[in-house]
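Most newcomers find our protein records easier to grasp once they have seen one. A record pairs a protein's sequence with a compact description of its fold. An example says more than a description, so a record of this kind follows:
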Amino acid sequence: MKIKIISFIIFSIFVMSCDRSGIFEEFQKATPWEFHVQVFSDDNMTQPVADVLVNIYKTNQDRDNNTNILSTRNTGADGEAVFSLKDFEPGLDTQKAKGIYYIRVEKDGIIKNDITRYLLMNDGHTYHYIVLN
């Protein structure tokens, strides 16, 4: 019985003496939220399309009528357009910005409409892939 108690005390001292100073610092380094729209020309998503106009709307009516654009970008050589939280909510209030958004991509007269999943606007990067063909 004494051996178990002594072993427990030694184990407790060992666990409590471990240095954990860096654990919480990792979680405190928040990655700013970004919404990445990547446009491809093939179903395998291996051929990115550059210079595609990407518009984001709050409602599907706005998207269908191409009015009240919330934010717009052109894709780069990697077929990617990047939006920040400020593009969705200038006051950076994630509670106001959460929700579903409507996307319209266009290049050379080809238009593709899409809808996002529910965006939480948490730290990190959210990706949305669209095939334009």
In short: The chain has one domain: 32-131. The chain has a mean pLDDT of 87.
